Amino acid sequence: MTEEIIIAGFGGQGVLSMGKILAYSGVMQDQEVSWLPSYGPEMRGGTANVTVIVSDERISSPSISSFDTAIILNQQSMDKFEPTVKPGGVLLYDPNGISRPPERKDINIYTVEGARLAAEMGNTKIFNMIVLGAYLKVKPIVKLENVIKGLRKSLPERYHKLIPLNEDAITMGMKNVNEVQTV
Amino acid sequence: MAEITVQEIIKPENLVYKKTPLMTDKALSYCPGCGHGTAHRLIMEVIEEMGKENDTIGVAPVGCSVLAYEFMNVDMQEAAHGRAPAVATAIKRLWPDKVVFTYQGDGDLAAIGTGETIHACNRGEQIVIVFINNGIYGMTGGQMAPTTLVGMKTSTTPFGRDVSLMGNPLKITELIAQLPGTYYVTRQAVHTPSAARKAKRAIKKAFENQVNKIPGLSFVEIVSNCNSGWKMTPVDSNNWMEENMFPFYQLGDIKVDGKLIEK
Amino acid sequence: MGELRLMKGNEALAEAAIRAGVDGYFGYPITPQSEVIEYLTSEKPHERTGMVVLQAESEVASINMLYGGGATGKKVMTSSSSPGISLMQEGLSYIAGAEIPCVVVNVVRGGPGLGDIQPSQSDYFQAVKGGGHGDYRLIVLAPSSVQEMSDFVPLAFDLAFKYRNPAMIMSDGLIGQMMEKVELFDPMPRMTDKEIEEKFPWATNGKPVGKERRIITSLDLDPARLEVHNHHLQKKYREIEENEVRYEMFDCDDAEYIIVAYGSSARVCQKSIQLAREEGIKVGLIRPITLWPFPKKQINELVEKGVKGFLSVEMSAGQMVEDIQLAVNGRTRVEYFGRYGGMIPSPEEVVEAFKNKFQED
Asked: Most exposed residue of A106, C67, C86, C263, measured as fewest CB within 10 angstroms of its CB?
């Protein structure tokens, strides 16, 4: 199994940390992982993306140009990464803030209303965990228990009290993923 | 009366001067009349008197005293031009119980190495900096230094230092005295026996501060002559220094025990 | 098995420095490697091992702090990125001339000039040909994973002290910023002052009682003596070339063509050779781990085995290709493909370039 993912959106949406938690979850179940961020001026407010690879084998190139899954959280990222999804791959996006929905016919498309659900749960910071939950529902590449372990590893101890909230957010995402098209 | 032989005169009780073993037997490479040799000797005498010859690391600069390590008989490093304070910073941080000093000229300390000088002083590195200011680049043949006086002729100011073209002479010692990281800042000379005795006391105080682990850097400027660069006889150069250098670079303590001296 | 962590390359390198018993780190922040000093300061290495960490006023000061600290026999290191490494070249030349062991890390970014902050390999010439003035060499290790960012720290120090020579870890923004799984080695104790004094009689840490004082200098105004010193250095460099070449080969046994790539681009090319082999092209990859000394002999052996061509894949405008050409010496084809300015070639692009270069074969 090798899953090559791009997660892209605005800086501040938790794109990089979502990738980090996913990567840590892979580590927890003895898989090989790589996490390659866009870095530098593309920080808060700008666009941010991260390439995550989770695999049963040694990972060759951490830098890749086509993906099994694209998780897209703003319009610029949609424009940039929709064409990079492999035929038959997955595109998951939050329709909030998307003015031009994806047009590809050869890929599987899902949505999750992450921003709305996060607002309903009263904490916009768990937006990325909702989206992660939706992704894991579509592609259960890591077990939920390992995600929790990954959270425990990647979060500083003083935030560990927030782990149950994050778990709820993941579950919320899993329950609220909508299938737009499958091929 | 019995005749006295030379051998009978050379007895320990008759000795009035003995070269410190912390100066090597190598003939100094400095021009006759230059103050570097005296300054070297004073530092080495202080280290000998403090019993620190096995615990001292000196850092030599680039300039006339680039070969200081040939004459000072302690462990020595030769630094790149201007970088001695950075070199000494690392030595002292890694060997906090050793005695570390730099020996630098005006081009080295106040031109190319200004950044390293100011930051080592500002961090309050527990080192001693000995700064020889003769207002000229001796080694490279008498070019303008940052401390060259206004109107002073050098090979790159053949018509005298013109402030509108070359800026003002830099009083870096007064500048670093303003920094909270310096504990003792003084300006001395070594051209007469009494000046040399005073300078030695200042150097000793600087090294004692370090050995006693008093926080802060001790900085000793020595205003010196460069008879070759100034194109004068040694005696004339010392007279010229008293008449021209000392009014601008006034001798005496500038900061003592971490406090600026009111003038 | 050591402790397993998910870390950025820069963080793994910093953690490895603490664990390798490094005595002093002196550095100045610059993207994309500032995590090194940030990690070190947040880890309080002074409490963990007694390691000194100091943010210097410039890269020029940093490298001269390495000169001073290294010359006392302590394990000292710095890290920077391309423009900062350029500033260090004078100091590196002095360090090489005075034969001071130390480790310098370059997390390379796009140039020339201020360039950008994206991954690049365009400092290759600077790293492997000396970089500053005078005849000298750095031992250059090129990690291609976060694991190697950790493992190469003690290795670089071993080599630096074995040969009394500066060693460089030449990484890039991709390896520095990427997170991967890393197995951390067990901490090694720092050497005591006494051990240093006994082990390194050349080190200037205070004249031993009853013995001659030591001098660390790169100056000798007598050209005849300086030539003798240069002979000594060159002899040392030949010895390093003989003993310290490190490399890795992928699918080279039956390969008709060989891609040569190091660091990040070697990771990209691992994928490229998989893709090419899926199309039936017999291509292998040789990855120099030491960029200097360069694996000349191994390339030579591949030439003698009848390899039809070499492709140098770089994130620079044709630098390493010159070393391959020197090794091959006209006996077979040597081509180049690269991206530069901070761009990373894609695995598919490399395959495409390979086909274009060798399509008539």
From this structure: A106
